[in-house]
Every structure is written in structure tokens, then in C-alpha cells.
Write a structure and sequence with these properties.
Blueprint: H1 4-8, H2 26-33, E1 41-46, H3 49-54, E2 65-69, H4 74-90, E3 101-107, H5 108-113, H6 116-125, E4 130-135, H7 175-180, E5 186-190, H8 195-207, E6 212-217, H9 221-224, H10 231-240, E7 247-250, E8 253-256, H11 267-270, H12 285-311
Parallel strand pairs: 1-2, 1-3, 3-4, 4-6, 5-6
Antiparallel strand pairs: 5-7, 7-8
Amino acid sequence: MAKLKDLAQMEDRLVAGHGMCLGCGIPLIMKIVLRATEDPLIVANATGCLEVCTTIFPRTSWNISWVHSAFENAASTIAGVESMYQALKKKGRIPQDKKVKFLGIGGDGGTYDIGLQALSGAMERGHDIVYLCYDNNAYANTGGQRSSATPVGASATTSPSGTQSPGKLQRRKDLTKVMAAHGIPYAAQASPGRWKDLYNKAKKAFEVEGPAFLNVLCLCPTEWKYDEAKGLQLAQDAVDTCVWPLYEVENGKYKINYKPRKKKPITEWLKPQGRFRHLFKEENASVIQRIQKEIDEEWEELNRLAGFSQQK
């Protein structure tokens, strides 16, 4: 069982000096995930908030082998590195007992959208890699445009709220289920608000043979427009309202890792965020009703999948 004090004593693989925003969820996510394996680790990082803020020339915050990839090909890059490692082991140029882990990282823009083709290919081919998506629901690095991870009703620079629209109209893509549908050994959804669950899932992802996918909700005060001091409470509210349920899919079997004792109404997650402020106007009441209905349906479906897995 992981103890926070033990993790705190481990060597930092992402060190101080980065330029990420006050209250950003990325540093917390990375410090937990990078501690989930003690094996040598190679990272391929897509363009995005994490890449830009940790590698401002001539400095870097990375204390491990790290490769910058374009938005669209972080999964291809890390899959190529893993393939090279396997080939060199076969040729005897790397000892057979030497363990190296491979991690691809991207935000939701570089994962749900621009990088989806490369990610799908890497998963289908069965590379022994972990891919981590830090999902802050927007293209936060390039001006706050909507992505396919942006929730219904959110106001973004390319889906602004106004007299003609209540914000984004489309449902967000359920990428965790999309990745699980590839038949990979492990896919999971996690939140920095529950660090032990995130650590355990990252550890399991590194330990499985074959591809693994981690989708982690990433706090973003810049685009979500909330009090950065209340970020972890907001992360917990996402879990308690079931807008971001914690679950894993291991060899096709669904398991819910956390069920709120009393499921909170979606308004408790929406209210603290400026990007949803317009929804609380009388003319947008139907949008909140729609969001609640869709979240309820998705939670029921997840429970059905988990219950079906337990019956197998």
C-alpha cells in the first residue's frame, strides 16, 4: 500500500522550475504518475501545456530521458522507441533482464483529437507502452479553444456563450471507453483529487504487458475559471457528481473504483467554474437539465458494464 510520505521521499523525475500556472493540475498528476515505476523511463511528450512549460529554452524540468513530439504523433514516437528497444534486446545489444518503461503523454487536444489516429494505431499494434492523457477539457495551451473533451455547455473561445448559443452544444467524447474498445490489457480513468487511486492505476499500467491507457482529469484554473485554491475540491466534486467517474477496464472487465455515498447534483461541479456561469441564467436552465440527464445515463451505463463484468 502506497504511503504519501514514502512517495515524497522518492527522486523527482519532474523537478522545480517549470512555468505552469498557479493551481494547474499537471504537476500534481505528473509527480504521482512518474513515481509509479522505479524502472528507467523514457517519455515522448506531445506539444501542449506540459511540453511548453517544462522545456523553456535553455532549461528543462525533466530529470529523465524525454522526447518532444508534435501534437499528432507522441504515441507513434514512443511506440517507435519501444520497438527499437525490443529489436536491440533481440540483437543482444541490451541485456535481456534490463527493464525500461515507455510513456507517451498528451493533453486532450493532442490525444482526443489531433493525436487519436497515432494513438489508436499504437494500441492496436500492441506496443508495450503507457499513454497518459491529462484532460483539461480544452486546447488550453493555444487560447482555450474547445476540444472533443470539452463538456456540453462550456464556454470556450471557439464555442463562446452568447445570445445565439449556450456554449458547446456537443457531448464530450468518451475516450477511455474508446481505448478500452481496442481490447488493450488496461485502460483507466483517474483524478488528482484521489491520489492513491491515481498512483495505483499508474503502477498497474506500467506493470501490464502490452499497451495501457490512463485518462486523468486535469484541473485548469485558466480555462475553467475557478479559484485555484479550490482545485482539489473541484476534482472531488467531479467524482461525486459522476461527471468524471473513477473506473478501470482490465482485460475487458469493467470495475468502478469509487461510488459516491450520495451522488451530488451536477450544479455543484458547474457553479464554481466561470466557463459555466451563463448556464445559470433562466434561459439556459434546459442545458443544465440536459447535462444532468446525460451524466445520469452515462453513470447507469457504467454500472451496467461493471455489473456485467462481475457476472462473467
